[in-house]
Design brief:
Largest sheet: 9 strands, mixed
Oligomer: single chain
CATH architecture of the largest domain: Alpha-Beta Barrel
Strand content: 25-35%
Bound molecules: N-(5'-phosphopyridoxyl)-D-alanine
Mean pLDDT: 98
Radius of gyration: 19 Å
Low-confidence stretches: none
Shape: globular
Helix content: 25-40%
Length: 286
């Protein structure tokens, strides 16, 4: 049984409780982060902590008192659960007033709810899926307009995953005004020659922590990076495609809407980027 963290306490998972009035439960009024663990250490913790703070600020959500100590809480959960490879999920909601109301509760009387738990995934880095690549379909992006905030409103991404599953593929790339925004829970990229193309930052996509690191490593490896929109047709004609996220790192995409990308097998650039990403982030893990 896992040991989880809830509002200052480390508890067995079946003893951890949150109120039925919690704003996360009633209104999806919460933000989250997923940080990966390799060799028992946290990957890019500082990046996740920074984005978390930004998400809280964008929603005028009070900062929980534990915010400065989150690294210690993450480490303690890794230790208590003996995680070598996996993820830490963190969620902060606006807390639980004692009723349902659209008006935000008074932060003096209602403090944020903070929950963290581990997900043990042995073999996460040496994933057999990364050697095969994944297939995606395109779907219309029907999420709200502030996708730069990492909120727990994940119903549409979850439906997108189910659409992909029903189509016999692994994931969906969401399209808005003819251009790809991102994957259901990852950022999307195509490669043409020596150029990596991924959508520019804005409110339309989540500013991936893995994205920032991968683009930095790509530039250091003398690859060209173009941050701009691209279409599904362009992806189908690309040499390679891939996604990034804290849980998949760099994952090749080998098919888009039934059309093979490049050779239809993971290409050398994505494979190399995955290698560099894993190697460099392991070195900087805390
Ligand atoms: N998802 N875009 C979306 C919509 C995401 O949900 C995620 C992450 C990303 C990649 O961000 P990062 O590189 O910081 O993980 C992009 C996490 C992993 C999840 O929901 O499980």
């Amino acid at each position: 049984m896992r040991t989880v963290y809830v509002n200052g306490e480390y508890l067995p998972e079946n003893e951890a409780k949150v109120s039925i009035f919690d704003r996360g439960f009633l209104m999806a009024d919460g933000v989250y982060e997923v940080t990966s663990v390799l060799d028992g250490k946290l990957i890019d913790f500082a990046g996740h902590a920074k984005r978390l703070e930004r998400s809280l600020n964008e929603l005028d959500m009070p900062h929980p008192a534990v915010l400065p100590d989150l690294l210690e809480v993450h480490r303690e959960l890794v230790r208590l659960n003996g995680i070598e490879e996996g993820m830490i999920y963190l969620q902060i909601t606006r807390g639980a007033p004692n009723d349902r109301d659209f008006v935000f509760p008074d932060p003096k009387t209602t403090t944020p709810t903070v929950v963290l738990f581990t997900q043990n995934k042995p073999g996460l880095a040496d994933s057999p899926v990364a050697k095969k690549g994944i297939k995606v379909i395109s779907i219309e992006d029907q999420r709200w307009a502030r996708r730069d905030i990492k909120t727990v409103q994940l119903l549409f991404p979850s439906m997108g995953k189910m659409m992909a599953k029903a189509a016999g593929v692994d994931d969906a790339w969401m399209v808005e005004d003819g251009a790809v925004t991102e994957g259901t829970s990852n950022n999307a990229y195509i490669i043409k020659g020596n150029t990596i193309i991924t959508r520019h930052l804005g409110n339309e996509i989540l500013h991936g922590i893995t994205r920032a690191a991968v683009l930095r490593f790509a530039k250091e490896a003398q690859m060209q990076v173009e941050e701009r929109s691209f279409t599904i047709a362009e992806a189908q004609e690309a040499d390679e495609a891939f996604i990034t996220s804290a849980s998949t790192f760099v994952m090749p995409v080998v098919e888009v809407d039934g059309v093979a990308v490049g050779s239809g097998a993971p290409g050398p650039v994505a494979a190399r980027l995955r290698e560099i990403y894993l190697e460099e982030s392991r070195k900087m893990a805390v």
